[in-house]
Description:
By secondary structure, this protein is an all-alpha fold. The chain has two domains: 21-53; 54-84. Helices cover 82% and strands 0% of the residues. The protein is built from three helices and no strands. The longest helix has 30 residues, at 22-51. The model has no long low-confidence stretch (mean pLDDT 87).
Amino acid sequence: MTILAFIAIFAGAGLANSDASIWSAVLLVIGVFSGSAAWWLLLSTGVGFFRSRITSQVMLWVNRIAGGAVVALGVLAVVRVVVK
């Protein structure tokens, strides 16, 4: 799915034209790789940082709030379908 999303984004941005050089394609691939690697580094570092600071009581409240948000959004979606 990620590859299809990148194909759609590149095509929509006009990066799929045939007169592009090999170097522009290489730079594009390097840019996507670098951005993805930076994102995962940031994400894993953040999780490692907060993992030792979150107790089971905090996780219980995080799960309750997230569950409530999912339920609220589900109810909102049903209400919007029924009201139309």
